[in-house]
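Final report, Chapter 2: Outcomes

The project's central promise was a pipeline that accepts a single protein chain and returns its three-dimensional structure in a standardized token representation, suitable for archiving and comparison. That pipeline is now operational. To close this chapter, we reproduce one record exactly as it appears in the project archive, with the input sequence first and the structure output second.
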Amino acid sequence: MSFLFLDDENEKGGTKMESWMSLISDVGFPIVVTLYLLHRIEGKLDTLNETILQLPDHLTSQRLNKKVM
């Protein structure tokens, strides 16, 4: 989704706002909003996935700590 976050000047010499306006007129406002929200949530989903993968190890260490006490 690199087209969402173009540099200040794109290949045609336009600005970010012109790129956004062109994208909105080409594919429609709802699709642009959806792509933006998906891009924003991607990092949060990666963090959630990593946390879930670490959960079994964390629970095991918690059980071991309770047995020691």
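Archive annotation: Residues 6-10 have pLDDT under 50 and may be disordered.
This record, like all others produced under the grant, will remain available to the consortium after the project formally closes.
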